[in-house]
Automatic annotation (TrEMBL):
This is DUF1093 domain-containing protein. It comes from Bacillus cereus (strain VD014). It comes from the Bacteria.
Length: 65
């Protein structure tokens, strides 16, 4: 997925909403919050692995450099 636009600043983090497609073609919306006070640059590509189980996704940590 490609970051387009800016995230929403929330305290010391940024919140993003991304739209993409699952392997079966179904549209999917993914929301995540960084643990950094710097935004992700527009145009940055992300590879996101997510589980349909929302509680399982809380265990994933995405780190950006």
């Amino acid at each position: 997925m490609k970051i387009e636009g800016q995230g929403t600043k929330e305290r010391d983090a940024f919140k993003y909403t991304l739209k993409g497609f699952k392997e079966n073609g179904e549209e999917k919306t993914i929301q995540f919050v960084t643990n950094d006070d710097k935004p992700i640059k527009e145009g940055t590509y992300l590879k996101i692995t997510a589980d349909e189980d929302k509680d399982a996704n809380k265990k994933h940590l995405i780190k950006f450099h």
